[in-house]
Structures are given as structure tokens and as C-alpha cells.
Amino acid sequence: MREVDLGSAGLRVPAIGLGCMGMSEFYGSSSEAQNLRVLDRAADIGCTFWDTSDMYGPFTNEILLSKAIKGRRDRITLATKFGVSRDTDGGWQGVSGRADYVKACCDASLERLGTDHIDLYYQHRVDPGTPIEETVGAMAELVAAGKVRYIGLSEADAETIDRAHAVHPVSALQTEYSLWSRHVEVDILPTITRLGIGFVAYSPLGRGFLSGAIRSRADLEPGDWRLANPRFTEEAIATNSRLAAGVSDIAAEIEATAAQVALAWVLSRHDPLAAIPGTRKTERLAENWAAADVTLSTEHRRRLESLIDDGVVGSRF
Q1: Which end of the chain has fewer beta carbons closer than 10 Å to its terminal beta carbon, N or C?
Q2: What is the pLDDT of residues 257-315, one digit of tens each?
Q3: 8 A C-beta contact, residue 38 and residue 308
Q4: How far apart (Å, rounded) are the C-alpha atoms in residues 14 and 274?
Q5: For residue 29, what pLDDT band results from cuts at 50, 70 and 90?
Q6: Quick check: helix, strand or coil at residue 164?
Q7: Residue 289's closest CA among 43, 36, 57?
Q8: Which one of 27, 56, 121, 122 is the catalytic residue?
Q9: How far apart are CA 12 and CA 217, in angstroms?
Q10: What domains does the chain contain, in order, with CATH numbers?
Q11: Would you list the DSSP string of 70-127?
Q12: For residue 118, which of 81, 90, 84 has the smallest C-alpha distance?
């Protein structure tokens, strides 16, 4: 497995990591025992870049990872986030980037994770009511205190990234990026390239759609948040299926899976870039992990990119 250096500060991670959000919430029912088996297997094969957030669960995803990192903390690059506030019942309380909130969230995450440091600490969403300089200033203090090693932003715009990086080096920007979500190519990727910031692509499989596993809403469990997502209405699925079918066609030609083709495309788009697909199955983990060894020809990349020329039905959120 190839590794990438996220940013210029020395954060080195596997090109394919593991997004852990779905292990606790949003994608239907889940088994802790099975999730721990996936995490154990991930550690065994070298998929050691794990991504979580205090809001997943809420809070329970970090507790899950605390169980999985015991005895192997030094092998895991652990990323978590703050900024989207929820109460213990799951209620949404808005977004905050206040300095006192940043520091309190970090301490709470450290306790839940059972560790003395966070490798990569992201602001999950930018708080429009708090200057980014205040938020990143507080994150810089956490770095100085040894509680955080590297800092990142998630879903930030180009101007915010510039302002944040001027306060303290930002090692990574995490934003959705896949064949059907290419908005970052306009000004985000050029900005982080100029600043020497790495990119972490979440939902690189189009929330599972590009794997070909979702052909109708009936393929989603009750409680799956995608049932409320504009790209997963019956009309949107019917129209967007041409994109999934095109990915599958190329996968058949190169003897790979659709998920591997979709991941290989993302990995080819920017350097440095790490992708963090999520899964709750060991077989899908192995499939995703092997995508780093899939090479797409120039013609295959051209065909994949032409699939969205007619547009994608439904907004991201």
C-alpha cells in the first residue's frame, strides 16, 4: 500500500483509510462486535488511518474506536473532529468554533478515545459566527500543549482555508469528493496545492452509490439517512444509475469491482490525497484496500469523467 504525506508538516498516512461514521449512525443498524472485527482487520492489513468525530453517535463512535486502538495506539493515525454540536439524545445544537468550545471538545474526545493525543484534529464545519482565526488559534494551542499533532478543516471554502493556514499550518482538508461530487476541482484543490495542504476525500464511493449496490430505495435500510438525501429519491436513483452502470462497465473490462474503479479514479485526481471509504464488512474493507493497486488508463479516466457530462440529479445534501 502506498502512503501519502498530507501537507508539509510530516503527517504520513495510507492512501486508503477508514471512515468510521457508519459504524455508529446514519446508515441503518450496526453491530459493535462486527465493527470491532472490521477495525481489527483494518489494523492487521495496514489500513491504519481511522476517521471519526465527536458527533457520530453522538459520541459513541469515539468510544468504539477507543476499544479498537487498545494495544495498538502507536500504529493508528487517529483523526477526529469538533464543531457540530449535539446533545446526548442526538439533538442538533448548531455549529461552534469558539475557542473555549474547541478546547472543551478536545478534552472530551481524548477521554472518550482513551488516548493522550489526537493525530489529526479537524474543524468539522466552519462556524460563520466565529472568526476562523479564533478557532484555529485555539487549535494551535492544543498542538502546543501536545494534545493534537496536526490540524485540519472540513468542507471549508478557499478563503477560509487561506485565513486558517495563515494562523497555523493546516495539514489536511477533508471534503466530499467522488465521480459525482467534483465541486472541489474549481478552487479548493488549487488552493490547497498552492498552500501545500493534503486532501482527504470522504464519501469517495458516492455514499455507496458508485459501488452499484444501490439500485432503488428498497436497497436502503429504514433509518438510513440517504432516504432523505436528494440524490436517493427514486427519480434521482433511476437517472443517476447510468453513472453507476458506466463505472461497472469499466470495472468488468479491467477485472476489478465498481468500488475499486471509483476509488482508483479519486486517488488519481490529486497528490497528496487519501480516501476514507466507510464499511461495516471485512470483505468490503479488503475490496476497498485493494483499490490502491488498480490503475486506470487515460481512456478509462476520460470515459468515467464523461459520464457526468449530462449532470447528476440531486444536490449533495
Answers
A1: C
A2: 999 999 999 999 999 999 999 999 999 999 999 999 999 999 999 999 998 877 899 99
A3: no
A4: 7
A5: confident
A6: helix
A7: 43
A8: 56
A9: 39
A10: 3-214+266-294 (3.20.20.100)
A11: TTTGGG-EEEEEE-EEE-TT--EEEE---HHHHHHHHHHHHHHHT-S-EEEEEESS--
A12: 81
237-240: list long-range contacts, CB under 8 Å, 24+ apart.
237/209, 239/313, 240/180, 240/209, 240/312, 240/313, 240/314
Instruction: Report CA 79 to chain centroid distance, whole Å.
Output: 10
Report how far residue 125's alpha carbon sits from residue 311's, in angstroms, rounded to the nearest whole number: 27
Digit-coded pLDDT (tens) for 198-232: 999 999 999 999 999 999 999 999 989 999 999 99
Among 234, 244, 259, which Cα is nearest to 314's? 234
H helices, E strands: number in the chain? 10, 12
Contacts of residue 63, defined as CB under 8 A and 6 or more positions apart, other chains included, come to 57, 112, 113
Told to judge if 177 belongs to the known catalytic residues of this protein, a careful annotator would answer no
- Determine the Cα angle at 241 with ends 245 and 288, to 5°: 60
